[in-house]
Design a protein that fits this description.
heterodimer, A: 325 residues, mainly alpha, MetI-like fold, 2 domains, B: mainly alpha, 2 strands, 2% strand
Chain lengths: 325, 308
């Protein structure tokens, strides 16, 4: 490691931070001298300028550009009409990608929420609750790349010699020598093995949010139900679930958006091979390594359109709950 | 919202739980399933190369053999698989500004949107709010060409190419993370700020305090908890990000741990002695931050997604 190279990085960092401090000071200075006039546009704009400039250059203009590019050819020029979109919905390989994304969006929230809800219910009020929660929550701090490597190791497959992947070792112990599988190269099912990784990461999120919701269920309700003689099973389905339904919806919606945008796990574990690619990964691989600007842009737009209804649903939900309160 | 639970009820509930051994068993199974994969990787990273490649990590307990060679190799070793120490520095140089910038700018913007009255304010807020919907993927290609080729409109160059090379590419990573992080940050801080007591701010205004003074002396101290939660989120998001890093920080001078590890997993998929140690180098910082500040993280999570 060359020390001088490293020092120059900190030089760039120092310059960046200095520029940042200057901008903030300038905003606060101008904010100090603009007079308080009601309905004055200047005062508001002073505080908003850094955000508006960054968001404008970094998000708004690029998003418009991408939409335009999605009607262009591979170099992002000309006008090919809806050809790129037609390609997404007719090319058999890309149809597999669309199918995979659908599986991800449906299975990840269902499985992760089920595990989180079950776990949160069981550990509620137990003396080890805090520790138990931390154990399952910890994967949230790990990068998708890190998680992908952790699980790639679990799924590791050796044609000859000892298995070093835990899953194949367990399979060998149970079903005998020679029953080990190349999990990540098994068509269709490899998607499930990738989804397991996402569920492993997200279950902690569900646990923490749902556990807080369960604690919010008023004790009078659970006590009344208990006096009526309901058993634990009925209590769970008839009292707990309806009481925390809004929290469950929020958790599932958040996870389905994350599943739709998922990219890192697929890239690190299979590189999209053996029929495991998803929309967000395909968008990256078409745009950058593949140099197919038009197709990549069309995939981004499809992703965008798919996110919209989910978010509208989320916003409506939040607003309804605000009105109730 | 949360009703105080009577101690008697608590005790009764607790007894109820423990009378169900199958429930405890399920919890233990889930906890074991959720920790074993990480544990296996951590243990493996301390085993000699020969043993990692030929025997499972569970055989460690039969013949313990411990080494830190793997860490030495990935951190300082030469060649494409080593030098994670420099990638670690890249991750730091990327993360610090990418956390500071969006949170500071979002705090300023949220102040204007909640406590400065001007025409069109609500429209700007709705606009920024709506931008949360836009996936990062929508911005990647054009933003990259903004940096590499500048802006041309009808053959007229409005902005020349930035020509960022080597370590100067950090600038475009900071820019991208800041722009992509701003909409959510503005939204969350606005939620928090608009619920501050109006009487305090109003009376400061009557006393002749300027906007700058109100922001610094009154608003900023009150929103510190929200800033802390947001900072942890943004930190985990940036440190763990792969997509933005691949697009904007390509090249060994700037690419962070995640990008370097992903490359190792692709090109050296069976070099487990390097992958296991490398993965842990990248995991250690966010896990430490997370464990230390878990309280703020959970608070932010509950305030952001599931208010009330």
């Amino acid at each position: 490691m060359n020390l001088i190279d490293q020092l120059s990085k900190f030089g760039v960092l120092a310059i960046g931070l200095a520029a940042f401090v200057l901008v903030v000071l300038a905003v606060l200075y101008v904010g100090n001298i603009v007079p308080h006039r009601p309905k004055s546009l200047t005062a508001g704009m002073v505080f908003l300028i850094p955000t508006l400039v960054l968001v404008g250059i970094g998000l708004v203009v690029p998003a418009v550009r991408t939409t335009v590019l999605s009607f262009g050819d591979r170099r992002g020029e000309g006008n090919v009409g809806f050809a790129n979109y037609e390609w997404i919905f007719t090319d058999p390989e890309i149809l597999t990608v669309v199918r995979n994304s659908a599986i991800w969006v449906i299975l990840t929230p269902l499985l992760a929420t089920a595990v989180g809800l079950l776990y949160a219910t069981i550990i509620d009020k137990s003396p080890f609750e805090k520790l138990a929660k931390t154990l399952v929550f910890l994967p949230m701090a790990i990068s998708f790349v890190g998680a992908a490597i952790i699980w790639k190791f679990v799924y590791d497959y050796k044609q000859i010699g000892n298995q070093i992947g835990l899953l194949n070792q367990i399979v060998t112990w149970i079903f005998g020598e020679g029953s080990a599988q190349h999990w990540l190269a098994t068509p269709f099912w490899n998607n499930m093995f990738l989804i397991v990784v996402m569920v492993w990461i997200q279950a902690g999120f569900a646990t923490v949010v749902l556990s807080a919701a369960i604690k919010g269920v008023p004790a009078e309700i659970t006590e009344a139900a208990r006096l009526d003689g309901v058993n634990a099973w009925q209590m769970f389905w008839k009292v707990t679930i309806p009481s925390i339904r809004p929290a469950i919806v929020v958790v599932m919606v958040t996870m389905s958006i994350a599943a739709l945008k998922l990219f890192d796990i697929v890239r690190t574990m299979t590189g999209g091979g053996d029929g495991t690619s998803v929309l967000a990964y395909e968008m990256y691989s078409q745009s950058f390594p593949g140099q197919q600007t038009g197709r990549g842009a069309a995939l981004a737009v499809v992703l965008f359109i798919l996110v919209i209804p989910i978010i509208i649903y989320q916003v409506r939900n939040l607003r309804q709950r605000k009105e109730v309160r | 919202m949360s009703t105080k639970v009577e101690p008697v009820v608590l005790a009764k509930r607790a007894r109820k739980r423990f009378s169900r051994p199958w429930a405890s068993l399920t919890a233990i199974i889930i906890a074991v399933l959720w920790t074993t994969p990480t544990f296996g990787l951590l243990l493996s990273s301390f085993r000699p190369e020969e043993e990692i490649k030929t025997t499972g990590w569970w055989t460690f307990f039969a013949s313990p053999n411990f080494t830190i060679d793997n860490y030495n190799e990935v951190l300082y070793g030469s060649g494409s698989s080593g030098r994670l120490a420099s990638a670690f520095i890249n991750s730091l140089v990327i993360t610090i500004p990418s956390v500071l910038f969006p949170i500071a700018f979002a705090a300023l913007a949220a102040y204007a949107l909640s406590w400065v009255e001007f025409r069109g304010r609500d429209w700007i807020f709705i606009g920024i709010f709506a931008l949360q919907v836009v996936p990062v993927q929508m911005a990647l290609v054009p933003l990259l060409s903004f940096f590499s080729q500048g802006v041309d409109v009808g053959g007229v160059t409005l902005l020349p190419a930035w020509g960022l090379q080597g370590e100067w590419k950090f600038v475009q990573v900071w820019f991208a993370h800041t722009a992509f992080g701003l909409p959510l940050a503005v939204f969350l801080l606005h939620n928090f700020m608009s619920e501050l007591p109006g009487s305090v701010i109003e009376s400061a205004r009557v006393d002749g305090a300027s906007h700058g003074a109100i922001f610094r002396k009154i608003v900023l101290p009150l929103i510190t908890p929200a800033l802390a939660s947001l900072a942890i989120f943004q930190f985990l998001w940036v440190w763990n990000d792969l997509l933005v890093a691949l697009v904007f920080a390509s090249g060994s001078e700037t690419s962070p741990l995640t990008a370097r590890l992903a490359d190792m997993a692709g090109s050296r998929g069976n070099e487990w002695q390097r992958l296991t140690a490398g993965a842990f180098v990248s995991i250690i910082v966010p896990v430490a931050v997370f464990l230390g500040l878990q309280r703020y993280f959970v608070r932010g999570l509950l305030a952001g997604g599931v208010k009330g």
